[in-house]
Protein 1
Amino acid sequence: MRTASPTDLMERIVSLTKRRGFVYPGSDIYGGLAGTWDYGPLGALMKKNIKDEWWKDMVQLRDDMVGLDAAVMMNPKAWEASGHVDSFADPLIECKICHQRFRADKSDEIAAHEATHKGKKVAWTEPRQFNLLVEAYLGVIEGEKQKIFLRGEITNGVSVNFKNVVDSTRIKIPFGIAQIGKAFRNEITPSNFTFRSREFEQMETQFYIKPEKAEAKKWYEYWKQNRMEWYTSLGIKKINLRFYDHAPLERAHYAQDACDLEYHSPFGWAEFMGIHHRGDWDLRRHQEFSGRDLTYKDETTGESFLPWDIETSAGVDRSLLFFLIDAYQEDENRTVLKLHPKLAPYQAAVFPLLGNKPLLIEKAREIYHELKKDFMVAWDDRGNVGKRYYSQDEIGTPYCITVDFDTLEGAKRPKDTATVRDRDTMKQENVAVAELADWLKTKLR
Ligand code: ATP
């Protein structure tokens, strides 16, 4: 196995993802738009798989969580209430030589920039607060348009619907609301591929509990462990994960306690999800600004209170990037993405041994169409089988199914069996054609 330097590794991953259709620079044919990325056919599949797995784990398999899909555009008062209009800001400094701006709290980015001015002493301006909310304007009449904000985080749509959810379901505290959706930030320095983008997606849970310290501690620890286990169960190596606990001054304006789950990336330890004890910040502020009663009534004790919220907030794009980096390997003769089969864009590929034998093609197409009813399956009949394996390994397809003459007639193997080659062990096994779908299902459990 070759080990690339961190910069080489990132370059190789960026190049592979573009070449194979995972991620393209946004608006590429117009010279791009900084901080935006478009997911290609394979990236879109992998992103969907991550979100589906997350939703299954958080909503489908739990009795104490419900889902929500709130609007991106909200009444601007919601952003005043949540504190984002006043406090959703990064400290910004400007290089006095070239006037580029950087976040004052990112010392590695500052040092990297200073190095570009070879040997010159770089002076910086004093830090200024820079609000990250992206503004948009709604309405048809020029001059009467209403300024709104594209959501800077997806939490607000959940907080303003807390009462709706309680009133329209039978859910009782402790319970959570899960949501996946786009967020937008006017990031000063979009960087490290998709890691820091201006448009990105989040997967969040707001978990509402009784406002008691012991409860908060219990659930905060519970979610830390739960999320760590989720990422490792999907293949991220534990050694590449750690928690970073925020000191009081580092915490966001809404947080009483906070930590980041970080990944050991080629560009250093980097956050890709956060766990925040938000207390009753959101509900209290929305209650105050909207004038609506948002308290929860506990039917057994008769008490009314504003619950506390323990949040888990993960980035879909950063998760995808780190799943890719963690899975990327170069062996002697191949590049392979050892992605968990549940996350790989295709769960299987089907090949006829030879691309010019109609009977083989017909049988392989039949299997391909049958499997497509339950799985994402790739088809390849170009070149030889070795090249096809190479191509599927590079995009992480865990199983390659080959239809050969034994499938049709049986000789060395029983008739109606196909060979299935495992991406990681590169070993082959024979599986009856009629059992292929069940066989794959078991592998994906
Ligand atoms: P950072 O310090 O890296 O800017 P943050 O602490 O502001 O991140 P949160 O507000 O806690 O991030 O957002 C929760 C998650 O949303 C992050 O862990 C990350 O996965 C994702 N996220 C936040 N900002 C971006 C971004 N600009 N691009 C991609 N993902 C992001």
Protein 2
Amino acid sequence: MSMLIKNGEIVTGDSRFFADIFVENETITAIGIDLPIPADCEVIDASGKFVFPGFIDPHVHIYLPFMSTFAKDTHETASIAGLIGGTTSYIEMCCPSRLDDAWEGYQLWKSKADGNSASDYSFHMAVTKFGPETANQLRKIVNDGTASFKIFLSYKNFFGVEDGEMYETLRLAKELGVIVTAHCENAELVSRLQSELIGSGKTGPEWHEASRPESVEAEGTHRFATFLANTGATGYVVHLSCEPALKMATDAKANGTKLFVESVIPHFLLDKTLAEQKGVEGMKHVMSPPLRDARNHERLWNGLSAGQIDTVATDHCPFDLSQKLLGADSFTQIPNGIPGIEDRVNLLYSRGVCTGKIDLHQFVNVASTNAAKIFGLFPKKGTIAVGSDADLVIYDRDYRGKISVKTQYTNNDYNAFEGTEIYGRPWIVTVRGKIQVHNGSFVGEKGLGRFIPRKPQYF
Ligand code: URP
Ligand code: ZN
Ligand code: ZN
């Protein structure tokens, strides 16, 4: 069965035009004006609507043992929530702890996804220790199609690596031609500041930000960039949250360091006063790096529009209120994370494009195309072109609504963006030509998604 999407306004990272899109066997096979309608073809009238390439979330957590609990998601729930919001591919962080075996962890993470996702997915492999067997295991993992690593400079003794381990990881990444993504905060400083705050009775969520201030993130970003410069590896800072860290990253880029920057949707829209609320209201908004002083929002939007920030992801990491309350006696025990896979695209469109902070092409680039290029998915994913997968978002720009826990697909009992008005949403979402979402409802096939193997990029 084929599909013809007629009369839509196609918007990619670098073009905008009215045309029909013809899809056969999962792939776009023709784009043109007034394409003929073959027999037995499903025709969709996209008049008045944008047609975007399927959006890509390059940083999500789905299966995640973390902070004495597990992120509250499965590939089924997360992928469906993502699809409702137009995300047709995601890259999950495969995160065994320092105590776990990397290869076994990789198999476990893959098994959780296998057959359970409604959209396509890939992985970043976290390197949480670098022992004698690590290099061989990572070679096998890269050969299996997971061609990017993740390191944490924070979360001491759990996910966090020492500088020597970062060095070894970057050397290997350079040799294998893979990119290294990094959570950049100084683990030692975080741990010392946490102890001091708790020791002086400052135990509530309002102290989370003070335990990981902007300077701690700037130091991590600078150190990561310095290690990249001295190993020749290519890096990607995840969830960059603030002006001082952005300065470190942009200075490094200007000096020739091969570095990409990701920020995540909460850091553009939410600020630290939310986490400063008492009790569980504050805990809902605890993530790391923390929500920052609101003065950073403008800097991040400007960085996005100036091309200093390459991608907008979510760092989707859901914990429900009962899990957040694990930190009732100490902010250091609040599971870190804010979910967002369902809302990222609509928020970026409504609060970025509709306000004129970014244009439509920047929107497509930072939410889809750039991630596809950086992580080796392009041009199968991340654009609308003959030969690309038919991952398409037909976007209803006339929709008006509000984000609410009451209507969300996300498997959680709160939404950090509750009440935010949105000025558009996906009307139809296809994954490789199959309609998965129609008018805000999941209508598709739950196990349709496939693992997307990726090759080293040798930047
Ligand atoms: O708070 C966060 N970001 N939780 C998920 C783990 C991580 O650091 O990405
Ligand atoms: Zn992180
Ligand atoms: Zn993360």
Protein 3
Amino acid sequence: MRRRAISCKSIPPSKSVSLAHYKVQMTFKELGLHDDVLNALGYMNFEKATPIQEQAIPQILQGRDLIACAQTGTGKTAAFILPIIDKLVTQPHKGTNTLVIVPTRELAIQIDQQIQGFSYFTPVHSQTVYGGGDASGYINEKKALEIGVDIVVATPGKLKSHLMMGLTNFDHLEHLILDEADRMMDMGFIEDIQFIISKLPEKRQNLMFSATMAPKIRTLVREILHEPFEINLNLSKPAEGVTQQVYLAHDEQKVPLISQVLKAHPEFTSTLIFSSTKKNVFTIVRALRAKGFEVHGISSDLEQKEREQVLSDFRSRRTPVLVATDVLSRGIDIQDINLVVNYDAPSNAEDYVHRVGRTARSNTKGMAITLVNGKDMRRLQEIESLIGYEITRMPMPEVLGPAPEWRIGSGGNRKNRFRKKKPNSSEGKRPNFRKAKPSKPKGDSNH
Ligand code: AMP
């Protein structure tokens, strides 16, 4: 299904706050946070606030509704959690005070871990609520919800079923946070979210975070938020530190090509390969294992426990190569991935930015390679028009046979579509495959 995602640029500039205006970074002390919160931030080595934190924290402390167009990697979690913990420490409250709704269990766990860190020196408690857990998880959820734990971080489906059983204590809820709102819409959670909201007190502060401003998000903003403060971090381009390359490749050339790239870069200790389909994830895993790589796969088909284990092994670098569906492309924070490979071009151009955003985080360098077959050329064109420049085309290594021909528009017109080229473009250079052993061009039966 094709989705039309509108980038954050659609927030009118007069109302939005652009990153470019905020060169001076404030400290958390200057933002007026409580000493117990500052203490935890000190232990976590958070010195200066990121732009979204600098913008959002004062507004949230003042009690204003907020819509922020921001992606993972901008520090958005701390932007909404720090002022909430501050209020919980400084203001009287009872029952569950804050509800954070997120699209996936992984994101719920990640946010809960951050809350535990930020609230370490405070009496604030949080609880995750998500599907697919075991019996003891359910008992913990039930107990925490009935007691009225301070902060609940939940996925919509599971929370709805708790609400229907009357297990929650949301009568005094003061804050509702919707994180990754666009992803929740894409995953079909709108009705669950509307149901949950219908059970909350009307007088509350609402904060919404979304990577895109699709029309349905605008509708949700109008339905839920009251005169929100708007923040636009406008990150619809990959970071400068990412070297982006495209290979036009037939499907049967993809695994041999990935294998060559990995062999040519033994220094890459963390590689994330994205597949648009769940079906392909484990086909790619098997094919790469047959070529001798230590690789694992993750998709929503895995049990919750297995997903957590696979993610944790990849985070800690016990697994150097992970093949994943888009479940991982948003929200999940994994530091210092060296290489992102798009096994296929994502159907939504914004997903390209999210996938590539897994590398070169926090001003580090990274590489992103996109493999484009004959069917995906139109998608590549859409990606390039979103980011505003042409991605460097790499020649297929000769041993892998001829690549597909570019079939959209004429070559001359295509080159003229963009005035700008990526500054680190290395077009024309031959790929560095000196260390690679030749592999068979066709008939990689494991693929
Ligand atoms: P997020 O965008 O919330 O997923 O955060 C991305 C990463 O940046 C997480 O690992 C955070 O712990 C980290 N982070 C967020 N804010 C700061 C900060 N002000 N200083 C240092 N690290 C930060």
